[in-house]
């Protein structure tokens, strides 16, 4: 027994020494081990996180409260740095789950009809003349002074139509009715926002 014990401890020692001498071998072995057992390791990490979730959250919260301005500056910098990438991801996610988001938007509008999208508010603020012109068209349509046709002026398809201010927003009621894709084309070829 005693001899075996000393033998193993000797082996341990030499193994430790060789590990210290060959760090890149150790790294490679770890990498192989991780590749082979990645699922088990991830599962163990998940279990560990689940077990200590409350503690970790409490710690993170405490840290945030003690370093608030630093954390906020950090988050802002992160946002600025990754904004384009994140927005592209959001768009891609919405595109992939189009039906889900359409239903979600519909439900939100129905449950909260008075709420106006911040994007719309921002657009109105940036384009006051256009916003005024659009509102004027909507009012006239409501009063029955302008009739919204069913077919696109350009492609003659039966679609939902936008009022396009083809002679500029200074003539708020002078509009042509275009489907979304024809409307987009007009704006991209004209390079004027009307
Ligand atoms: Zn069209
Ligand atoms: Zn237009």
In short, what is this structure?
74% of the residues lie in helices and 4% in strands. It contains seven helices and two strands, in the order H-H-H-H-H-H-E-E-H.
Description:
The chain has helices at residues 2-21, 23-66, 68-96, 98-111, 118-126, 128-143, 180-190; strands at 161-164, 176-179. With 194 residues, the protein is mainly alpha-helical. It has a domain at 120-190. Strands 1-2 form a two-stranded antiparallel ribbon. Helix 5 (118-126) packs across helix 6 (128-143). The longest helix has 44 residues, at 23-66. The model has no long low-confidence stretch (mean pLDDT 90). Bound molecules: zinc ion (2 copies). One zinc ion binds at residues 164-165, 183, 187, 194.
Shape: elongated
The value of Rg in angstroms is 32 Å
Taking pLDDT < 50 over at least 5 consecutive residues as the criterion, the unreliable ranges are: none
Note the total helix count. Answer: 7
Strand content: under 5%
Q: How many β-strand runs? A: 2
Helix proportion: over 70%
Helix vs. strand class: mainly alpha
Q: Would you tell me the overall average pLDDT? A: 90
Give the helices and strands as they follow along the chain.
Answer: HHHHHHEEH
């Amino acid at each position: 027994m005693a001899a075996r014990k000393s033998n193993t401890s000797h082996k341990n020692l030499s193994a430790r020494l060789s590990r210290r001498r060959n760090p890149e071998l150790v790294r490679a072995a770890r990498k192989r081990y991780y590749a082979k057992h990645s699922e088990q390791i991830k599962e163990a990490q998940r279990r560990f996180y689940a077990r200590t979730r409350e503690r970790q959250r409490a710690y993170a919260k405490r840290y945030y409260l003690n370093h608030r301005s630093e954390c906020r500056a950090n988050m802002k910098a992160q946002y600025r740095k990754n904004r384009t990438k994140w927005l592209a991801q959001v768009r891609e996610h919405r595109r992939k789950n189009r039906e889900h988001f359409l239903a979600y938007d519909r439900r939100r509008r129905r449950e909260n009809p008075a709420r106006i999208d911040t994007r719309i508010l921002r657009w109105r603020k940036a384009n006051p003349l256009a916003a005024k012109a659009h509102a004027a068209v909507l009012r006239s349509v409501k009063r029955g002074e302008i009739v919204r046709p069913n077919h696109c002026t350009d492609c003659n398809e039966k679609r939902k139509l936008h009022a396009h201010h083809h002679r500029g927003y200074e003539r708020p009621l002078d509009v042509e009715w275009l489907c979304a894709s024809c409307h987009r084309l007009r704006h991209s070829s004209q390079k004027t926002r009307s």
